[in-house]
Write a structure and sequence with these properties.
Oligomer: single chain
CATH superfamily of one domain: Peptidase S8 propeptide/proteinase inhibitor I9
CATH architecture of one domain: 2-Layer Sandwich
CATH class of one domain: Alpha Beta
Distance between the termini: 77 Å
Strand order of the largest sheet: 2-3-1-4
Shape: elongated
Largest sheet: 4 strands, antiparallel
CATH topology of one domain: Alpha-Beta Plaits
Order of helices and strands: HHEHEEHE
Number of helices: 4
Number of strands: 4
Structural class: alpha+beta
Helix content: 40-55%
Strand content: 15-25%
Amino acid sequence: MKIIIYQIISLAFMFLVLIFGCKSTSNNYEYKFDARLRQLMSEKDSNQVISCTIQLTRNYDSEIQEKLEKDGVKILTNLVTIITAQANITVLRKIAAYDFIKFIEADKEIYQM
């Protein structure tokens, strides 16, 4: 009898963890940002424009272009599933929610000699 009660309590606990644990991260898209971009986002003003590289889950097309430009992304170049762009931090957080956005990486400065 004790074993059955223990199993029921364990199953109820796992069920609660699944329900409440999954909901807390459902609207968090921070995992789509590289570490450097997350650091810049925490240090800079939300209106600060950042140059970035965006990796897509599908080929770049007019629908993606329209959505991104409507949200305020300035697209610089595109190559099938990779886009170089500029956008402010608020816009980057917004577009990360799109299912066609796989990853966003802050561009690195290139120094010339």
